[in-house]
Amino acid sequence: MRQDAKALLERLGQQKFRYQEFPDRFPDMELWPLFEALLKDPRVIGEEGSRVDAREAAYDQSRGGASEPVHGMTPEGLLDRLYAQYQPAAADAQAPKTESPADSDVQVDVSAFLATLQGGR
Amino acid sequence: MALILVHSPKGGVGTTFVTAHLAQAFARRGSQVTAVDFAEQDALKLFFGLLPHQAVPGPYEDPLEMDGVRVTRARDMDPIEADAAAELLTAEGAMVICDIATGDAYLRKALMDRAAMHVCVLAPEPLSLAALTHLHPSTPAMDLKKTVFVLNRIDDRRRLSRHSNLFVRELFKDRLIGLVRRDEAVNEAVAMFEPLAKMAPHSVVLPDFDALATTISDLVAAQRATGAAGDKDAPPRKPAEGGQLRKVG
What is the crossing angle of helices A110-119 and B159-172, to 10°? Predict the structure, then answer.
């Protein structure tokens, strides 16, 4: 439970409320073009090669050495992977399954994803 | 003690607000703290309950203390004068927090050598994020030493605010040292000429700044320890372990 919600319920003396967070659903989580533009801007992210290389390595490591290149995935697949990181376990159980069967068992370093976007220009 | 510069590449994101409430949070911790208004608008004093016509003394005048914070104004100073004033104020042993206007990036640059850190205030809004491209003329935002980030006015009811929060968090990681939630009570307090802590003591903003002050205090202490070890150019980062830093938001 979020600390502010917990504090509010305690102040109100309410025990009857059921707490639930409502995470963003996949279809709502489009990647804003602004974010992509910033990731591609050298004034925001420098040392392009070394940073991307490092993140690529971290990504490969996080996948246990899997060789599937991120560049070959569809944008929808990338977004699914990105936002899967922010789905609480309980919400995952209730949420409708996405079309990619690999989503549930692949843990991806989000930074690797962002760095990959930067490197993919 | 330590010089903290608060500056943003985009105006209107709450730089003055962050300066004032960060100073008040340090005062609540019992720290001796000075808030310096380098901005032309003379707005810092409004967060301390002063009226628009009430003058704030300069750094060489008798001090004005409000809510445990010494409030001073450094107006029309060139970089050399500003640096001298900062040296004087920090020599007095206080935590010195400076509000620097967006257009005065030269002032930030002039004071950076003396500063412990630069707190860059961002808002979860596209114009603020886009201004990251103008943070420094030659160094990428991610590589700026001494620069840390605070995301102000976050509102989880708004989609772009949530997504911006995720984006900034992933972009800067441990360089994002604070989140401050949006609360209309902030504006209401200014309109009432009352400090926020007095008019809205349960405002969500107050614990956010308490957490930010704790983080900055820990970072300054860590910087000193690192500096003592000879690595003075190390950028301020949250310690990865230790549990002293509280997660905000």
Answer: 90
With CB atoms and an 8 Å threshold, state whether A46 touches B143.
yes
pTM of this prediction exceeds 0.90: no
Both tokens of B207, joined, read 């614990």
Which helix H or strand E contains B4, and what residues bound it? strand B2-7
DSSP B163-187: HHHHHHHHHHGGGEEEEEE--THHH
**Which residue from B21, B15, B12, B5 is spatially nearest to B199, judged by alpha carbons?**
B21
Angle at A57 between CA A52 and CA A61, to 5 degrees: 145
| Single-letter amino acid, residue A69 | P
Amino acid at B124: P
Q: What SS3 class is residue B36?
A: strand
Please list the residues that pair with B179 across neighbouring strands.
B151
Per-residue pLDDT of A58-113, as tens digits, reads 776 676 644 333 333 444 444 455 445 445 444 444 444 443 433 333 333 445 54
ipTM at complex level: 0.84
Instruction: Please tell me if residue B221 touches chain A, with a CB cutoff of 8 Å.
Output: no
Of B123, B171, B177, B129, nearest to B149 (Cα)? Answer: B177
Alpha-carbon distance A73 to A67, whole Å?
A: 13
Distance of alpha carbon A89 from alpha carbon B209, whole angstroms: 30
- Chain A's closest residue to B162, CA to CA, is A24
Cβ atoms of B178 and B151 within 8 Å: the answer is: yes
Cβ <8 Å between A44 and B126: no
Q: Do B140 and A29 touch (CB under 8 A)?
A: no
Cβ atoms of B134 and A38 closer than 8 Å: no
Residues A45/B142, Cβ–Cβ less than 8 Å: yes
Q: Which residue of A has its CA nearest to B173?
A: A111
For chain B (length 249 residues), average pLDDT per consecutive 10? 94 97 96 94 96 94 93 90 88 89 91 95 97 93 94 93 90 95 96 96 95 95 72 50 36
- Evaluate the CA torsion angle A12, A17, A23, A25 in order and state its sign: negative
Q: Chain A: residue nearest B128 by CA?
A: A34
Rounded CA-CA distance B93/A15 in Å is 48
